[in-house]
Amino acid sequence: MEDEAKRAIEAILMVTEHPADPALLAQLTEVSIDEVARLVGELRAEYEADNRGFVIVEVAGGYRFQSHPDLAPYLERYVLEGQTARLSSAGLETLAIVAYKQPISRAQVAAIRGVNVDGVMRTLEQRGYIAQVGREPGPGNPILFGTTPRFLEALGLSSVDDLPPLASFVPGADVVEQLEAGLRADAAVEPEPEPEPEPEPEPDPDAHQARTDPPDEPGDQ
Q: Are 143 and 131 contacting, i.e. CB atoms less than 8 angstroms apart?
């Protein structure tokens, strides 16, 4: 019975499109969830001992087959050859903001990026990486977005808690101090504005009159 349950789990993982829920595997094979975990562990050990090109991983709360990490260069050649549907840098930046700040509204993402993100958000939603998860209890009740199980599958994560901490991407205090010092130095050497030209003196109307009046004729009284 144990061997049959193990073979059944292996067959299910072979055909499933999404990570198989351990509870569902337990129900289908009529064993406990703990037994499912033990049988999956045995399968992993067997594949490793046989030096197979695939492994069983736990992502998005379930089990699935995945290529062996050592073979990533070969998979990159296969997958990236002729690929044209990769996310743009704007898409990756927006997806990262949603992943780390979720739940988050479209306006909040735009405020962080400093540009309009309507088109990028629609693309991410159409590809299944983000989805609507609720509404903010504020003026207008804007829609809030979060990542999906497809996002976890693409990154090979069990949950968003497995994302690397943001602190690893923030520069250290010494780097920030150097940047601030550079900004202060730039401000100190800012060129002084050129002096405005002095206004020309206004013409004297009396002098103009003296130049334009004709001289008195002889004999005029």
A: no
Among 4, 153, 150, 151, residue whose Cα is nearest residue 64: 153
Where is average pLDDT lowest: 57-61, 193-197, 209-213? 209-213
Write out the DSSP string of 149-173. Answer: HHHHHHHT-SSGGGSPPGGGGSPPH
Distances (CA, A) of 26 to 1, 67, 102, 149, 187: 13, 24, 32, 21, 67
DSSP letters spanning 76-122: HHHHHTT---PPPHHHHHHHHHHHHH-SEEHHHHHHHHTS--HHHHH
- Encode pLDDT of 83-116 as tens digits: 556 788 889 999 999 999 999 999 999 999 988 9
Q: What is the pTM of this model?
A: 0.48
Q: For residue 203, what are its two tokens?
A: 């013409």
Structure tokens at 162: 């497995």
In 3D, which of 127, 118, 168, 166 has the Cα closest to residue 147? 127
Between CA 15 and CA 18 the distance in angstroms is 9
What type of residue sits at position 171? P
Question: Is residue 47 within 8 Å of 91, Cβ to Cβ?
Answer: no
Burial of 60 (0-12, 13-18, 19+ CB in 10 A): buried
